[in-house]
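Archive maintenance. Older records in this collection stored only the sequence; we are now back-filling the structure field for every entry so that each record is complete. The fields below show one back-filled record exactly as it appears after the update. Entries are processed alphabetically, and Nucleotide-binding universal stress UspA family protein is next in the queue.

ARCHIVE ENTRY
Title: Nucleotide-binding universal stress UspA family protein
Organism field: Brooklawnia cerclae
Length field: 299
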Amino acid sequence: MATEIQSAGKVVVGTDCSNRADKAIEWAAKTASSRGYPLLVVSVLPEVPLPKRTRAASALREGTDYVNQLREQVGKKLADIADRVRGYHPTLVVETALVQGSAPLVLAQASKDAVMVVVGARGQTAPPAVRILGGTADQVTSHAHGPVAVITDLSEEDHGGPVVVGVDGSDESKVAIGIAFREAASRHVPVRAINTWDFGPYDAFNAEIWAASIDEMAEDLTSMVNDLVKDEAAKHPEVAVQVDVVRGRPEFVLVDASKKASLVVVGSRGRGGFAGLLLGSTSKHVLREARCPVIVART
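Back-filled structure field:
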C-alpha cells in the first residue's frame, strides 16, 4: 500500500475514523468549502497492524488476511465519512485516501503541497504522558512544511470572534500574518494582532526604573506590529485590524485571547527560537491549551 497521497492544492485532514476525529473533519470541510478547495480525507494504517489475538485468530479461521480485512473496514468508514460531508457541503469536492505507513510522516509529507493539513488532538483532556511526549498532532506540526491546523477536544469557535495572530517579528510570524488575514477575510471577521512583552527575571527587581519607559516601549512595539501587518491589511481592506501590545508571557496571553476568537495563528517558533528548533515552547503551549482551532505557520 502506498504512503504517498495526491495532496496538491487540497485541504487535507487526517482521521482514525473514530467519532473523536469528527470535529477536525467538520472544521476542515467548512474551511475547504469556504475557500473553494477540494477536501482530502486521509486515514493511515500502521505498517505492522497489531490486532487483538481474538480478532487475529478469527480472521485466520475465516481464511481472511487481517490487513485486507482492516483495509476493507476502514475503506467503508472513509466512504461513509465522505458521504456525510457531501451532505453538509453539496458543492464541496471530497476525496478519500487510505494508505499504510506512519500517520505523522504521511501528513507531514502532504503539507509540502497541500493548502493546509488538519489534525485532531486531545489537548487538555489527554493523559499527562501523552501531553508530555506528544502524539500525531505534535509530530505533524513539528515536521510539517506548511500550515497545520490543530483542532483539540476543547476547540470551540466564536464565529463572530477575531482571528488572533501572534506577532513578534520572526519570519514565522510574518507567514502567520498572511494566513490570519486570509482566514479572517473568508470568515468576515477582524484580525487581532498581538505582541507581548514582560520583565525578565532580573528586570523585575528594577521594575520602578523601567516604569518610566513602559509607555514609550509599548508605542514602539505597536508601531512595529503596524508596520508588519500593513501590507496584508492593504491586500484585505475589508478586514478590520486591532493591534494589541500586552504585558505577559505570549503563551498565556494567546490562550486567553483564544477564548473569544474564531481562530489563533502562531508561528512554529518565535524570534528567540534557534535554527534547529522544530516547535517552540509558545506554539506547543497554545496547541494544548487554546480554546479554539489553532493554525501553526511555517516558513
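Update note: DSSP finds eleven helices and ten strands in the chain. The CA atoms of residues 149 and 167 lie 18 Å apart.
Entry marked complete.
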